[in-house]
Amino acid sequence: MFSFRKQLFALLLGLSTLSLVSCGSRHDADEKYVLVSANIKVPYWQLAGSGFMQAAGQMKVRATFVGPDSYDPHAQQEEFRKAVASKPSGILVSPANPELLKADIDSAIASGIPVITIDSDSPASKRLMFIGTNNYQAGVMGAKVMIDQLHGKGNVVVFTMPGQANLDDRLRGYRDTFSGQQIKIDRVVDIKGDPVVAFDTTKDIVEKEAKAINGFICLEALAGKEVANVLDRYKIKDKPVVAMDTDQETLDWVKKGVIAATIAQKPYSMSFVGLRILDDLYHDKFRPQDKSWSQDPFSPIPAYIDTGLTLIDKNNVDNFVAMEKSARGGK
Length: 331
Hints:
Blueprint: H1 2-22, E1 32-36, H2 43-59, E2 62-66, H3 73-85, E3 90-93, H4 98-110, E4 115-118, E5 130-132, H5 135-150, E6 153-160, H6 165-178, E7 182-190, H7 195-208, E8 215-218, H8 223-233, E9 241-244, H9 248-256, E10 261-264, H10 267-283, E11 304-306, E12 310-312, H11 317-327
Parallel strand pairs: 1-2, 1-3, 3-4, 4-5, 5-11, 6-7, 6-8, 8-9, 9-10
Antiparallel strand pairs: 10-12
């Protein structure tokens, strides 16, 4: 494992160095890259946008950050199709619905446009690689926190959006880790991209079945702060919440102790590294691009780059906030 990490680091360092050394000479005047997000207004994706634009600025290439203003897989599909029609040098995309975007990704690849998925994958497509979180491991990490908080016994409610590959993998990690414990997932709630669903569901649980539910698990960024808000209003302190991602409200609830922990991904890293690799793929094309390279033992590119996870709780939340501010340029 250590040897593999060293090799991966060397690969990324080589790609970054190549881009830095040649950024003044090899970039075309019409060279441009596009990041297509799942929800452009969410702080998580704004941080990804920061990484994308930072990399573009360093390489002196044009870059565009697009996506729907709310969770809408079909609107994202339209944004992706517009991006392809503009004939970019490469596309980063986080598929809200991997099956919905599969044919569009394959079509882009067939037309010679490199496509890399980040954050959420479309593994059945011909995308060149996936850069993002080991989402199964995110579920394992969160489950261990909940086991510790509930001392291995209790009923929990999960908030998610079924059908989104990254969230489904996280739920699988929770289920597998709870196996052998006396922790039961009482229900899985589809919030459909609407935080109000999480708020109203938690409120209903607190008012009608508080004794039956012992904790809350949020597999995406929207629900955690809504659950915490309800618990705080009702002055409930014995129902731990494990959240996902690091928008300011979520971090504030971690500081207050209402959210026991949240799992930080690295969207900045995903898009920063993703753009540098796209640039390399654009300038040093290999053929055929529409081959299933992830299944080829002699592929010139890795199938997957794990950007890592960080568990944020009261012990390290202030340090995390300081690092995030620095990454945003002090904003």
